[in-house]
Amino acid sequence: MEGERTAARAFTRTLVERKKMIYPLLTVVLFWQFLTLFFPAYLVPSIPTIARELARIFTDWLLIVNYLATIYRVVLALTVSFLVGSVLSIAASYSPPARDFLLTILHFMMGVPALSWVVIAVIWFSHVELRIFYIVFVTSLPMFTVQLDDGIRAVHKDLIEMMRLFRPTRRQLLLKLILPSILPIMFTGWKINLGYATRVVIVAELVGATLGVGNQLLIAQELFRMEAAIAWTLVLVLFLLVSQQIIIQIENYVLRYRPVGVLAEVGSR
Q: CA-CA distances (angstroms) from residue 62 to 85, 189, 256?
């Protein structure tokens, strides 16, 4: 019964939060439409014009392919960087000197601007897909690795000592204690890096790509079509919102043992 009440409260809270999102978005839409009264259409296109452009994106197969190409690039590069980052963070946890060496390199990589990686990739690679993959990978890998390393280090020492009383193998220690403990950090890392990687891939697609949302934004800029630029931007935002919700739903299911709204419940008592 308690679990059902908790789930019901969480569902109700989600509905209320989504309802609260409608009013700010509606305010932005109305304000934008209000601006169309004072600016020419090529600078501030009307909401119906943007809506028609959005409909064209989702009904024209060639434009859908551009959209899917960008999503594929983001998911592929993020998945590979997550897997490599997981291996590096776990391997570094077995050797403090190796960890210090690795983190020094990763922190240096995190200090390099994304635009610099774009320039380096253009010089190093002639293949466009390899160039885009490299840019997203090299910017996402340090963040994944550092986040997972922090999660591993956050595992309480007493839990590790208690686990060692049962004489586990390294594999058992990893699967039974470390992995469950860092799951929240893993989901947080995906939610953060997904938005960052999406922004980076657009910059990467602006240089040499003939397919993708970045290329479509470049075409919109060259043709001075503000409605197309806004529509493609909204399409990207939609992708982020949907993917974030998918991750959140998976997180809520996997980590369903976590209490919901602990501080709110304590404050109401």
A: 35, 32, 41
Amino acid, res. 101: F
Burial 19-46 (b: 16+ CB within 10 A, else e): eeeeeeeeeeeeeeeeebeeeeeeebbe
What is the token pair recorded at 207?
A: 């240089």
pLDDT digits (tens, 9 = 90+) for 232-244: 999 999 998 888 8
Report the length, in residues, of the chain.
269
Per-residue model confidence (pLDDT) at position 259:
62
Q: Which residues contact 158 (CB under 8 A, 6 or more apart)?
A: none
The domain ranges of the chain are 46-268
> What's the rounded Cα separation, in Å, for the pair 240 and 83?
21
CATH of domain 46-268: 1.10.3720.10
Nearest to 230 by CA among 25, 70, 43: 43
d(CA 50, CA 56): 10
Distance (Å, whole) CA 35 – CA 44:
7
CB-CB contact of 70 with 212 (8 Å): yes
Q: Are 247 and 187 in contact (CB under 8 A)?
A: yes
Question: Rounded distance, CA 119 to CA 141, Å?
Answer: 18
Residue pointed to by tokens 């996997």? 254
**Residue environment code for 99-124, b if the CB has 16+ CB neighbours within 10 A, otherwise e:** beebbeebeebeeeebeebbeebeee
Tokens standing for 88?
A: 């590096």
Query: Which residues of the chain are modeled with pLDDT < 70?
Result: 1-21, 165-166, 257-269
